[in-house]
Amino acid sequence: MKSIFTFILLLVITFSTAHAQADQYLMSARKLEVRSGPGFNYNTIAEVPQGTQVYVINSGYGEWSTIQYKSMNGFVITAHLTQDSRIADAERAASEAAAKREAAKKAAAQAIAQAEAAKRAAEEAARKAIADAERLKREAEANAAKAIADAEAAKRSKDAAARRALADTEETRRALEEANRRAQKGGSNVASTPIESTTPSYGSNSSPAPSTAAAAIEVSREDKYSSWEKKTYKSGATPKSFNFKGKFDYKLDNYLKIKVGKNTEVVVKMYKMGKTEKDDELVRVTYINSNAVQFIRNIPEGEYFLKIAYGKQWVETVKDGKRYGTFSKNALYEKSEQYLDFKTVKTSKGINVPSYNLALDLLPTGSGYSTGNTQDNISADKFNED
To answer: Spans of biased composition, class Basic and acidic residues (predicted)?
Structure first.
């Protein structure tokens, strides 16, 4: 009967450890007899050598304490135990080391994040520098091309003037020869002295009357777009002639607001700049009617330039299986040298998403209409390039 009670008591001790005092490590001051209960009348179930470290579960049994020794629990006299802080010190040191490791990990993660941010900033600065250099290169190439074109035009004009001067000189020489021949033949109505001239006339406002009446010529103006199909589009549509589907970034709530005046309709082509000119990407083609305001939204992040077609009465045709489109009246074409920066900017208040306003119209001149910026004018073929 006593052994059964001992077994039950040990079970109670085993399952009540969660409510005992924690983290108490003691050492036996002498050889300990571990008993099955708190008294000398209980059986000895183990012996603990002097100097052995044990874990005290509870000291609330008068002169007796419950301990854990190896894989068993039992009772020993409390006076035979002495304090041992080695394990507690080791656990405290381990806890402090773990805290230091966590702090070091956090510091390393923060340093990595800062390095990544610095790397991204450096890459962005380098990309912007490349874009600026490419833009300056394009401007220099455009200026050089314009200078060459101006020089070629001046040369052609000079050559044409020289040809006219030679022609006038030849005409004067022939007139002198004819006058000299008449003078040599004699006659009362012919001058006796040959006409001499050393200076070419370079043309004259008078010309000899034709010997016979000229045949009547019927003059009419040819409409080269008469066979083309007239098309009408709503503002914001993409003309079918471009066979193009726009690119959108619906995560960006940005826009390009375009206000068109009364003198024109426009087709605006937006190009995202690449590292080189061949990497430029067409992103949007938008038709806008006169006296209209159009928002071009959800533009992918990047730097952009525009090609703009001005005019009235849009027409389209098909040549060799390819569709073409243009304005048939007052057509002018322009490429902007001003770049639109749609890159987002991170600030302390959040992300800044840039947007732009643009006003377009043709200016009436004495000979028709003008964009007001002849430096950026391009040809229809240049505008229609992809």
So the answer is: 162-181
Domain locations along the chain: 2-88, 229-384
Cα distance between residue 35 and residue 54, in whole Å: 15
Question: How confident is the model over 80-98, as pLDDT tens digits?
Answer: 888 766 666 777 888 889 9
Strand (E) or helix (H) holding 143: helix 86-185
pTM beyond cutoff 0.90: no
CA torsion through residues 170, 171, 173, 174, sign: positive
Q: Are 28 and 51 in contact (CB under 8 A)?
A: yes
Report how far residue 226's alpha carbon sits from residue 313's, in angstroms, rounded to the nearest whole number: 12
Region 2-88: CATH code:
2.30.30.40
Q: What is the 3-state secondary structure of 195-214? A: CCCCCCCCCCCCCCCCCCCC
Whether residue 276 contacts residue 241, with contact meaning beta carbons closer than 8 Å, is answered with no
Token code pair at residue 56:
């005290």
